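S.,

Sequence below, as promised.
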Amino acid sequence: MPQITYIQADGERHAVGADSGVSVMKAAISHGVPGIVAECGGSLMCATCHVYVDEAFADALPVPGDDEDEMLEVAASERRGSSRLSCQIEVTEELDGLVVHVPERQA
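The prediction came back faster than expected:
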């Protein structure tokens, strides 16, 4: 089971096991990780599951699609080169150890 670590803006860490095939957002919600609001439930209609992907995993992820790119433009926290919507990142065995940083605010 792949492990994902969510690092809060204050440095608090939440390491969770996630089933392959679920989104990084759904893994956060099912484990009660704070800061992942997910207002639209993963339907790519908001940016309240915004995360910053750790640089070590940047090349392991596909490039964001146009819809994700558009939603990241309206994210409540600063958009960075490592910004992604966690609903659009599918957990795979290759992402075992993934580290994402949760922005200070989502809405």
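The chain has a mean pLDDT of 96.

Coffee later?
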